[in-house]
Amino acid sequence: MRCAISSRAGQVLARGSLILHKGDDGELRLDLQTDGGQLLQGGIIDPDGDMRSASEVLFGQFFEVWGMSNLTLTVTVR
Q1: 3-state secondary structure the chain
Q2: Which residues are within 8 A (CB) of 4 and not within 5 positions of it... i.e. 6 or more apart?
Q3: In the chain, N or C: fewer CB atoms in 10 Å?
């Protein structure tokens, strides 16, 4: 899925793709691969498919990279 990360002011900080990585143990991780080549690792997706905790970890990475909170992730499905 294509996505964009935007600041509160609406400035697009990055564009990229949300991807799932399967670990050696079979667990799925929600990650963001930016068009600039940066891989931001999110959390492990719950066995029932709930991505809430995985996305919270990913948003924590957004803060680490851009030093801002209240960022918006906009997803485009085509």
Answers
A1: CEEEEECCCCCEEEEEEEEEEECCCCCEEEEEEECCCCEEEEEECCCCCCCHHHHHHHHHHHHHHHCCCCCEEEEECC
A2: 12, 14, 15, 16, 73, 74, 76
A3: C
Angle among Cα 64, 65, 68 to the nearest 5 degrees reads 70
Q: Residue 64 corresponds to which tokens in the numbers above?
A: 């680490």
Give, rounded to a whole angstrom, the gap between the first and last alpha carbons of the chain. 8
Read off the pLDDT of residues 24-44 as tens digits, 9 standing for 90 and up. Answer: 899 999 999 999 999 999 999
Burial of 6 (0-12, 13-18, 19+ CB in 10 A): middle
